[in-house]
Amino acid sequence: MTATRAEVCVVACAEAWRGDGEILASPMGVVPTIGARLARLTFSPDLLLTDGEAMLIADVPALGEPATAVEGWLPFRRHLALVTGGRRHVMMGASQLDRHGNQNISCVGDWRRPARQLLGVRGAPANTLNHPTSYWIPRHSPRVLVEKVDMVCGIGYDRAAAAGPSATRFHRIPRVVTDLAVLDFETPDHTMRVRSLHPGVTAEELRAATGFRLDVPDHAPRTRAPTAEELRLIRDVLDPRALRGKEVRT
């Protein structure tokens, strides 16, 4: 069976939680949600999942379906304890993201008089300084992958380093998954690099879609395709209504 680009992205998102152990997975977006549930059903069975509100769920329902088995209650106080103690790995979105991992979800343009008002800073600073934070970008473009974000919401490696040990203690950005590639910051200066290109994506296409200089190795690895069992789980168990295709259309 041939996987679609959306299904490759699901697996790439799932891989962000590989080896995390018993922590709270907090996916934001359709593809990351399917990815977290796929990870729970396969190589990360200890992941904690929620119903999106205040319940820890024991089962792994299809997207859009209610959970039928609840294993715990996660009120806001307990949720904050998990967040500040590093026991959570969130995959957030980004309206802008720069080469150092600084994220913007607040506004476009000068923050004093923005051209566009977005979500606001929300919990991004606390997330990025207190536990692992990955990012999901369904439309990789120069408008999103930018040289400099208009406002810093999620903290990147350069700003965390400048703030000192209190900021770097739990700061980590394991993965950036886009519809074109998987990126990370595993370089000596913690600037963004290409971890893998999705099948069918060229180095030239990735460079053209990025708003800063991004080195792409001549023989960049390819993002792995889903296994037959993973495809079955994605298509028949987790997302039978194929909602993933509305978020990634290629």
From TrEMBL:
Domain of life: Bacteria
Transmembrane portions of the chain: none
InterPro entries per UniProt: CoA_trans_fam_I, NagB/RpiA_transferase-like
Family statement: Belongs to the 3-oxoacid CoA-transferase subunit B family.
Name the record gives this protein: CoA-transferase
Organism, as annotated: Streptomyces blastmyceticus
